[in-house]
TrEMBL record:
Key words of the record: Endoplasmic reticulum, Membrane, Transmembrane, Transmembrane helix
Record organism: Acrasis kona
InterPro entries on file: DPM2 (IPR009914)
Listed transmembrane segments: 12-34, 49-74
UniProt function note: Regulatory subunit of the dolichol-phosphate mannose (DPM) synthase complex; essential for the ER localization.
Protein name per UniProt: Dolichol phosphate-mannose biosynthesis regulatory protein
Assembly mode: Component of the dolichol-phosphate mannose (DPM) synthase complex.
Length: 89
């Protein structure tokens, strides 16, 4: 039951990701080719927001990954003390 539920969540997440990717691609690459008085162009926000959104998402990804890696490193350092191996030559 849990595997099927996880599969559904993954499928919905993948569908949502591709819908957002298609919307962003149309917004950044295709909409600038049309005149601004067309109705479809008015459905999209200004292109400056595209740069801001991607910049914020990249910044958030770096912060979250750095925080996660730091948390894992700190937790592992408390569980196993460092004992160097002694090698006599």
């Amino acid at each position: 039951m849990a595997v099927n539920s996880t599969k559904k969540v993954g499928t919905y997440g993948l569908i949502l990701f591709f819908m957002m990717w298609i919307y962003y691609t149309i917004w950044v690459l295709i909409i600038p080719l049309f005149d601004e008085d067309i109705f479809a162009v008015q459905l999209f926000p200004p292109r400056e927001y595209a740069i801001l959104i991607i910049s914020f998402c990249g910044w958030a990804l770096i912060v979250l990954l750095s925080g996660f890696i730091g948390m894992v490193v700190i937790q592992n350092s408390f569980h196993k003390p460092f004992t160097p191996e002694r090698k006599d030559y």
